[in-house]
Amino acid sequence: MEKRDYPKISEILPLVKSYLSSEISGIIQQRVKDFESLKNSSEEILYSELCFCILAANTSAELGLRTQSVVGPKNFLTMKREDLRDLLKSIHYRFYNVRSGFISENRWIADDLPSLIKNEKPWELREYFVENLKGIGYKEASHFMRNVGIFDFAILDKHILRMLSEGSEPKKITSPSRYYEYEKELIEKCKEFSLKPGVLDLYLWYIATGKIIK
């Protein structure tokens, strides 16, 4: 979809409402259930999902998924950094050196993930991830938490930012405070849809791309 084709956030209410009573809603609700079921997964599976969010950053969900599939959950935890780097390079993953470093340096958290994601203070948990993990900013932390069944956050990728932009230039995240500002704006919109932010994101992503991935 070309940039000019993105609907403005003020224009999407009827679009989302129309999807709430369509087959798209059924697909999205199944995806929500899939995310919720991941909350009870092993540390290996949860860490693989965290790595997917690292790999998808500044690339695409499709590339992140393909790379996640090639590497496999076990290798994210056990493969030597050099071997992981070479594997990512062999499949033409662009950020093979930096991202292999992030993945290997974050392994310390894997054992704690099953208990961490059951934290009853998700906003504090997101801050913990952002402050302590390599390659994890607010978007990536929000993405990971949504994918393991925590739907409190907005995932402000380029598609969503373009929808939030009422002018010709898309909004950009230049600081944590800017992320909070745009996230608050989207969370306010969620009240109109009676949806949690992480679920609304799936509808917005479908409107923007015609796809439902994760």
Could you give a short description of this structure?
The chain has 214 residues and is mostly helical. The protein contains 13 helices and no strands.
How many whole angstroms does the radius of gyration measure? Answer: 17 Å
CATH superfamily of the largest domain: Hypothetical protein, domain 2
Mean pLDDT: 90
Second rung of CATH, namely the architecture of the largest domain: Orthogonal Bundle
Note down, in words, how this protein is organized.
There is one protein chain. The protein has 2 domains: 3-36 and 154-206, Endonuclease Iii, domain 2; 40-147, Hypothetical protein, domain 2 (Endonuclease III, domain 1, Orthogonal Bundle), CATH 1.10.340.30. The chain has helices at residues 13-20, 23-38, 43-56, 61-71, 73-78, 81-90, 96-105, 113-116, 122-132, 138-147, 158-164, 176-193, 197-209. It contains 13 helices and no strands. The mean pLDDT is 90. The longest helix is centred in the last third of the chain and has 18 residues, at 176-193. It is mostly helical and 214 residues long.
Q: SSE layout and pairings?
A:
Layout lengths: L12 H8 L2 H16 L4 H14 L4 H11 L1 H6 L2 H10 L5 H10 L7 H4 L5 H11 L5 H10 L10 H7 L11 H18 L3 H13 L5
Helix pairs in contact: 3-4, 3-10, 6-7, 9-10
Essential attributes:
Endonuclease Iii, domain 2, mainly alpha, Endonuclease III, domain 1, 214 residues
